[in-house]
Predict the 3D structure of the following.
Amino acid sequence: MTDEERFILDLEGYLVIEGVLSAAEVTELNRIADTEFPHNDDGSVSGEWSMLPFGEPFKRLIDHPRLVPYLAELLGPTFRLDHDYCIFMKEGEKRGGLHGGQGGDHWYGYRNGEIRNGLSVMTYFLSDAPEGAGGFACVPGSHKSNLGIRELTDEVRNFERPVHFVRQPPVQAGDVLFFTEALLHGTMTWRAQTERRALLYKYSPGYSSWALDWYDFDRIGGLTERQQRILAPPSVQHHRSVVAEAD
């Protein structure tokens, strides 16, 4: 990470990493989503299920070489993938309001020059989310706030009253947005004509977990040795550093 990226992350609680996926990678991931993801009767995609069984393009995102250094620096060198799922939204669709904030395994800390986080998210975007489109929104800086979601009215929590301190960061297809779950965040109504497509890979420090179960390696298949370490259950003696092979 650059010094400027550290400053932005510490200041705002999220960071946009531009151009992580190539146009060809975005196209391939979208193709699999179109042809193989479970679809509802109306053609929409919904439900929180792991994307990893859908093939190599999704498994490669577990330890994407652009992102491993960020994860190691922000969660520690024995980070683990806690769970993953996608969020696809059509125009006019609504999802959850503001939530999160400090508490439990949602935490942010800075000590002796090191940034550390609890449960955190790498969100891969497979479609553009320009300013005003909706989708991911947050309260920048709230990951360090002494007050939290209880101080906000239902209107603000549900995005029914616009306020200056809630922001929807604009992103392009291929970008990745990192955020700590200690940040107040949620999902605004999707207002673009094109579908919102986001893949969420949620990571924890090696010793902790938010999910109630672990990954089934037999169901996923074809994992590298490093990917198996990243997907392993939590432990206070969690595996070797997963960044040993990052270079």
